Amino acid sequence: MRIGYGYDVHRLEAGESLILGGVEIPFEKGLVGHSDADVLLHAISDALLGAVALGDIGKHFPDTDEQYSGIDSRLLLKEVAGLIRKEGYDIANIDAIVVAEQPKLAPYILEMRQCIAEDLGLGKGQVSVKATTSEGIGFEGRQQGISSRAVVLLQEA
């Protein structure tokens, strides 16, 4: 078995799209990044890659490569899943959390879990997504950005 941990953060700006867990969420601000800036999928991807010591998503999908400009992070997650399986591992489960003061994410959690499970070929019961605020503290609390953390458990295929 292997365990991986991932973390990601992106800035919030007006006029950008807010996509979390592959779900577009209506909000006056969105996340800025080279890709679609989906912090949740980036944290999960980094956790998966880290569990098999393959580095991080920046190594595999660098922001200096224009082919990844604006790319849907669901596509990157599927690529990462292929790399994990190529190393001889299956995903046992994922536990992730998004830290955002606004918007409230509870109405979107089930859809996020479904997207992630579908993209990774998992059952919805293998994917946990939670959301919390930072109680007004830090960059998340000031609504300057959103962060996400994820832990994954892999097992030999």
UniProtKB/TrEMBL annotation:
PROSITE patterns documented for this protein: ISPF
Cofactors named for this entry: a divalent metal cation
CDD domains, sorted: MECDP_synthase
Co-factor binding comment: Binds 1 divalent metal cation per subunit.
Amino-acid positions noted as binding 4-CDP-2-C-methyl-D-erythritol 2-phosphate in the UniProt annotation, renumbered to this chain: 8-10, 34-35, 56-58, 61-65, 132-135, 139, 142
EC number(s) stated in the UniProt entry for this protein: 4.6.1.12
Sites annotated Transition state stabilizer: 34, 133
InterPro entries: MECDP_synthase, MECDP_synthase_CS, MECDP_synthase_sf
Source organism superkingdom: Bacteria
Catalytic activity: 4-CDP-2-C-methyl-D-erythritol 2-phosphate = 2-C-methyl-D-erythritol 2,4-cyclic diphosphate + CMP
Keyword Repressor set for record: no
Gene3D superfamilies noted in UniProt: 2-C-methyl-D-erythritol 2,4-cyclodiphosphate synthase
Enzyme class, first EC level, given as a word: lyase
Domain 2-C-methyl-D-erythritol 2,4-cyclodiphosphate synthase: from-to ranges: 1-154
Job description of the protein: Involved in the biosynthesis of isopentenyl diphosphate (IPP) and dimethylallyl diphosphate (DMAPP), two major building blocks of isoprenoid compounds. Catalyzes the conversion of 4-diphosphocytidyl-2-C-methyl-D-erythritol 2-phosphate (CDP-ME2P) to 2-C-methyl-D-erythritol 2,4-cyclodiphosphate (ME-CPP) with a corresponding release of cytidine 5-monophosphate (CMP).
Recorded family membership: Belongs to the IspF family.
HAMAP family, per the entry: IspF
Protein known as: 2-C-methyl-D-erythritol 2,4-cyclodiphosphate synthase
